[in-house]
Write a structure and sequence with these properties.
The protein is mainly α. The protein is built from 5 helices and no strands.
Length: 99
């Protein structure tokens, strides 16, 4: 999966309105994305991004009494921003090839 596509998904996540429980699932999925990037195994990032997308909003209507949907908590938003910036940087192996 291309870095640009992963960054696009992360930017979409920042716009979501979810219940607090869903944000917990998003944070778990973000941990997997972070671990994949830090390990350098970017070719294995697709399953982590897929899990992140599955944690997203459901396409059903809410009912009276459902937990409220809220924007991303500040910590989650910061993690998303950091990952997008990291993905925007040129990978080390590409920098070495250019130099």
């Amino acid at each position: 999966m291309e870095r640009a596509r992963v960054a696009e998904v992360l930017r979409q996540v920042a716009q979501w309105q979810l219940t607090e429980g869903r944000w917990v699932r998003v944070d778990r999925a973000l941990s997997a994305v972070e671990q994949t990037l830090s390990s350098g195994a970017e070719d294995a990032i697709a399953p982590a991004v897929h899990d992140l997308e599955l944690a997203g909003p459901l396409r059903i209507r809410t009912r009276v009494g459902d937990p409220p949907r809220v924007p991303a908590p500040p910590e989650t938003r910061e993690r998303l921003n950091k990952l997008v910036l990291e993905l925007a940087e040129q990978p080390a192996e590409d920098r070495d090839a250019d130099g």
